[in-house]
Every structure is written in C-alpha cells, then in structure tokens.
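Dear colleagues,

As part of the handover before I leave the project, I'm documenting each prediction I ran so the next person doesn't have to rerun anything. This entry is a single chain, and its sequence is reproduced below.
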Amino acid sequence: MNKRIVEHRSLTGALLSSFTVPFTGVSCLALDPADGTLWMGSQNTKGTFYQYSQAGTRLRTRTYGNLLGQNTLGGEFPPAPDAPPPPPPPTPTPTPTPIALVSVSVSGSPTQINEGSNSTFTFRASSPPAQAITLFYSMSGKAKQNSDYTLSGTTGQVTIPAHQSSATVTLHAVTDLVNEKNESAILQLQNAPAYSLSQPNQATVTIVNVPPGI
C-alpha cells in the first residue's frame, strides 16, 4: 500500500495489479475469503471502513462506533468454508450383451415307412443351449394323428436339454387293416421367442399302406 494506491503483488514482489482509492493514509487491508472483496480503513477517517472489489470498484462503506478515533492497523476474516467435494461421476449402466438366439432345424428318418413301423423326427440346435429350450411344432398332411400315426412325448412340443444339441420325437405308423393310398405326415417347426428357425424347418414322412392279409 502506498498512500492512495492499493497494490496486488506476488510472493516474489512482482506487481500484478493496482488501483487508486479517494482517500489517503490507508492503514489496514483485509481480504474477505467469502467473496474475494477487500476491506480497508484510513487513518484520516478512523472507524470507517471501505469495501472494494479486487478490480478497484467501491462497493460499500461501514462505520463502527467503538472504533471511532482508534488506530486500526489490520483486520481479518474467518476462512471461507471448504467447498463440498464434487459429486462422483455417475456410474455408467452396463449395456447388456444381446444373447444370440439358437437356430433350430428338423429332419425325419426314414422318410418312408410301412404301417406298423417307426420314423424319427430329429430336432437339432445350431449350438448346445445354456438352458433347456422348448420347441413348438404343428402337424399336417393326409395322414391323421391318432388314427394313422401316433407321436411320442407331448404333442406339439419337444425340449432340447441344456448343453445338448438335439432331441427326437418318434412317429409310429398305425396298422389299420384298411386298404388305402399312401399318406404323408408333415411336421412344421413354429416360431418362438427362444429360438430362430433354420433350414430345413419342415420334415415329411410317407406312410405306405399295408393291405390287409399281408
């Protein structure tokens, strides 16, 4: 401080900035850490203190009656409270890795059987599933279920066990002792959310009629 000049210097003494006040005899200078403003007094106006911005703009004046006529050589403010630590960055929500659907197909063997014989529908998965999956199918064709043939297991569905790559359904052709034309039984895989279809997704077994007495 030099008479009417307030100076801001570095710890090494380099002048960083300064401004002039309209009074002389600056006797004390204090920094308010709460807002970064400067408070100063003058020996010529004892008991009166002036608030300035660090750029040199006077903000307000305050007079303390108990300090009138007293020399004030310094001042201090309580330190500003520590700023709360910034909140931690939000934890990113991991994006679930989409699970690739197992694709399934079906085939029948043999594809032609006589009445009284069996054929096997084999359902194959493109890779062994981690969990058991139930496949759904429908039957059509000239041959009628329960009169011309029967199917093993639960009609319309079959389950491929976990870590296995296939499952089977047995078609048994019924000997009905009726002289008739050959008939076909067609198994068609149905779509479902747990798997996708690949080729072939249909299998046909032809039932050859066995005339009575043969």
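The mean pLDDT is 88. The radius of gyration is 48 Å.

All the best with the project,
I.
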